[in-house]
Amino acid sequence: EVQLLESGGGLAQPGGSLRLSCAASGFTFSSYAMSWVRQAPGKGLEWVSGISGSGGSTYYADSVKGRFTISRDNSKNTLYLQMNSLRAEDTAVYYCAKEEVVAATFGYFDYWGQGTLVTVSS
Amino acid sequence: EIVLTQSPGTLSLSPGERATLSCRASQSVSGNFLAWYQQKPGQAPRLLIYGASSRAAGIPDRFSGSGSGTDFTLTISRLEPEDFAVYYCQQYGSSPRTFGQGTKLEIK
How do strand A10-12 and strand A116-120 relate by DSSP bridges? Predict the structure, then answer.
């Protein structure tokens, strides 16, 4: 059974930093691209960042480029999101999601974690 | 960036009725790489449909997807009480991957 468990959310001040983690199990982690998707309170879904299975390719939404860094440790089956220079508009539930790539360059999201809440406020 | 516009914003129907949800793209979705997700309050999204019309594992056959190019549809043939939720479309044919703003399916 695929399981994704996020951690690391909490309260951060504007301009501060947080590091999110996502522990994966139930599949061969290194074989799959992974992404972070966020959802601001009462709002829709926004893709934030993605990373290839090897970690060699990374992708970012314009809204976080230069501030967030996605990475993975395939030996620990863990995905990370380092968030710097946080802004109030980064307040959201952050989900990690496993990607499935079928005849495409990018994947859809077939499994999701339960999410971790990040609140940016002074 | 491809903008996805879902309609209607809210759909009020009764159990047993048929639901038709629309997703329109600002430009053609490459390969018809479009997915649909269901989200219930306090829960993570769940994949329903990928490739515009392929049902994900374990999804009941009352859910079906159709469409191509810029116009896509999610149909729920006969609504069950557990189907009332928010539904999102998402394109994965180009970067950045984008979601529609969602359609809330509520009980009438």
Answer: parallel
Contact A86, A17 (CB under 8 A): yes
- The model's pLDDT over A13-63, given as tens digits with 9 standing for 90+, comes to 999 999 999 999 999 999 999 999 999 999 999 999 999 999 999 999 999
For residue A96, give the chain B residue with the closest CA.
B44
CB contact under 8 A, B37 and A107: no
Question: Is A49 in contact with B85 (CB distance < 8 Å)?
Answer: no
Strand pairing of A58-60 and A3-7? unpaired
Q: Which amino acid belongs to residue B86? A: V
User: SS3 helix, strand, coil % of chain B, rounded to 5?
Assistant: 5, 50, 45
Q: Across the interface, do B56 and A95 touch by the CB < 8 Å criterion?
A: no
Task: Name the 3-class secondary structure at A74.
Answer: coil
Chain A residues in contact with B50 by the CB 8 A cut-off are: 100, 102, 108, 110
Q: Give φ, ψ of B59 to 5 degrees.
A: -85, 130
